[in-house]
Amino acid sequence: MTYRCCIALLSLALFGCDEVIDLDPIDVSIPVESSVRPPPITGGTLVVLDNATAVAADPDRDVIHVVDLAFAEVLHTIALEPGDQPGRVVVSDSGLVHVVLRGYGGLATIDVDAGAVLSRTWLCTEPRGVAFNPDDATLHVACADGWLHQLDEDGASLGSTQLEPDLRDVMIVNGVVMASLFRKAAIVGVDGSRIELPPFGDHIPHVAWRTWVRPSGTIVMLHQLASTEPVPIEPDPEDIEVDGGTPYGGGGDPCTSGITGAAITTIFDGRTDTVPVSQSRLTVDAAASPSGEWIALAVPGAAAEEGTIRFQSTEFFECDPGARPDGDDGQVTAVAYSASGQLVAQSREPATITVFTDEPWGTRKVIKLNGEPRFDTGHEIFHRATSSGLSCASCHPEGTDDGHVWTFETLGDRRTQPLDVGLGDTAPFHWDGDMTDLTMIMDEVLSHRMGGDRQSSLRQASFQRWLFAQQRPPAGGDHEEPSQVSAGAQLFASYDCGRCHDGPALGGTITENVRGVRLQVPTLRRVSLHAPYMHDGRSGTLEAAIQDMVESTRGVTAPQADIDAIAAYLRTL
Questions:
Q1: Are 142 and 44 a contacting pair, CB within 8 Å?
Q2: How does DSSP assign 136-150, residue by residue?
Q3: Would you call 118 exposed, middle or buried from its count of C-beta atoms within 10 A (0-12, 13-18, 19+)?
């Protein structure tokens, strides 16, 4: 997008201009709303079996596809319950396939030969990752609430271990069961071990989209890098003269990282090596080729004409944009390699499996999957990158938040706010309450700061309907002691927390003066997943945040027993 001079957006002041203002283009195409509006992209829903059969989970249509790669045909389309939202897939030594059902809250066991669901096991409100340990034939499922569940292949519980909230993928590393942390991009083990990724220049790692272990024992993590530098909120006209450039996206230089972008970190023998993915868009899945020469990336944030799959050489030349195969692969959200080295890519819309017979530019076979179209304007606006390379999902992965504290010029530190808490009737928006409605956010943030096209009123309304429908269930609390939760609820009331955190969302509707700063009161829905806390992220734990609020609003220091009880109650929200 090229500006000849800066435009006026809502209440923003115009820069002085001698010429006629070149307004942003407005997208007036007719919005499309899917009959079942798709959930945010989570990625990584594909596995290839040794017998050249692919199993693809389809969270948009609540089905499991079993595909014969050699004959390019769909063997089975297994219908699940509406809202199951199947995610990560793993195969056990017995040949059974186990699929995480995020919407249901458990694990489905699939007989791929019969094309049937053998069992469904409820585990927690939000399961995310799963791994099979061949050493003892056990399954390990990671839940967002921080609990790691161990099961046998029949779904019987073998015990649970509490790690910490926001677990993502599960790995078996030299016999130790480990799990990644989604927002922090760290790794924790059941043995108490912890791996933190180091900063990369003026960026820090966060949002671990996919983490896996190679046969050599090397851990590979696809994650994002977030800038620690001040972020401009008033673009200078000189900074946006470059086509496709805004300060949010690195000023238009393809070799300069914007405020956030994709990276791949390898971890082996205590050493880490991080390489940013040049010219990255929203990237949600990755797979390493058996030869070790290539890493395939699923890039659903890229525009269709750019191609949403990329091959990156593991030599990682500086500012290497990677290889993009010719042809339209759809909106690729998952990638996996077969044992013979064929890359298999899954597109969510249109629903297809593409098989590449050579790496990386070989011939391809496209296999159409069964199911209704799921193209949706709101979903599209949220995930596709603007000309700056950023999308809404860059800072709000999976329709929630990245857990990062940004330093904004003129504003100071501001933690990204979650979106999966039900935003309807919670205006004004942003910590400072400076955005009166979603139209203002789309014009000021999406168009002005991120370099996207302005949207027609019809498209804005469609986006708002999709976004306001995003509300995940409570974060957990299944393991909390009921008496402790009950006591916490009473203490929450006695400390008058409900004066500000009121209504069905327990907040989100009013602006209050907190320690001399007027701030929008956040909702407490799913609060246990949203560390660090407060507008500037100064409280690292839920307990610290509760004490901070008691001190700032009541002028007293609460006993630790009260803090612990209130925290137990909040973890159930």
A1: no
A2: TTEEEEEETTSEEEE
A3: middle
